[in-house]
Design goal:
This protein is an alpha/beta fold. Helices cover 51% and strands 13% of the residues. The longest helix is centred in the N-terminal third of the chain and has 41 residues. Bound molecules: zinc ion.
């Protein structure tokens, strides 16, 4: 091969290889996204409203709001947003009762519901509280020990920050409800009941609807569901 030909062919071959690699990567991503959309339509999502029954979770010193009730309100709002788009939801609890007489029994039943589901996503809804510093506020998303859970958490965190003006970052947390689940799993602390302004907002049904809609948007984003 003449020197001049080699000069042109080598870079051409490199560009061709890069294009091929990118298109294979693109196809793999498309396939993953198609699978997520398919299982979202087929199996819906699992929503866990934290606490309930004898365990109220955090109680706000600002306005006496009870975490377990707010968790259920947002979980149900999220269910209604998703149901409107044809996505079936499984809630670990539908009312303010616990799933068992003991906390351990309650948590085990929640985990059974989550782990027997084939849903592509699980979200657990909670409210935060940090009475030592009432200035702390903002939604925060915690993820289980998997790359896809982190990916889902990052999307949700960024959308929740944009919707609320919050600045918190998603973080890994070793939690029973997130561990060993077959699907990406996150726990969303929707805000701080110890912060005066946020405690008031979290009891407002319009703000609850904003949080629920933002979570639904994040799930659609993560699944690659472009026209829900
Ligand atoms: Zn909680």
């Amino acid at each position: 091969m003449s020197g001049i030909l080699r000069y042109f062919i080598k870079p051409f071959a490199c560009v061709l290889l890069i294009c091929l690699a990118l298109s294979i990567y693109g196809c793999a991503n498309d396939t993953a996204s198609q699978q997520r959309v398919q299982s979202l339509k087929e199996y819906g999502i699992v929503i866990d409203a934290g606490h309930g029954g004898q365990d109220p979770g955090a109680v706000s010193a600002v306005n006496s709001a009870v975490e377990s009730e707010l968790n259920l309100a947002i979980a149900k709002e999220l269910e209604s947003v998703l149901t409107e788009k044809g996505i079936v939801c499984t809630l670990t609890r539908n009312d303010n009762n616990a799933l068992a007489d003991t906390k351990e029994g309650d948590m085990n039943k929640r985990r059974d519901i989550i782990q027997s589901s084939q849903a592509p996503v699980m979200v657990s809804i909670h409210m935060n509280s940090f009475p030592d510093d009432p200035n702390v506020w903002g939604p925060q998303v915690f993820y289980s020990d998997s790359k896809s859970s982190k990916e889902l958490a990052d999307i949700l965190q960024s959308l929740l920050n944009a919707a609320t003006g919050g600045k918190r970052k998603s973080a890994y947390l070793d939690l029973f409800i997130l561990d060993n689940n077959p699907m990406p799993s996150v726990l969303i602390e929707c805000g701080f009941l110890s912060n005066e302004a946020e405690a008031q907002k979290l009891t407002d049904s319009e703000y609850q609807a904003l949080i629920a809609q933002t979570i639904a948007d994040g799930i659609f984003d993560y699944c690659g569901y472009l026209n829900p």
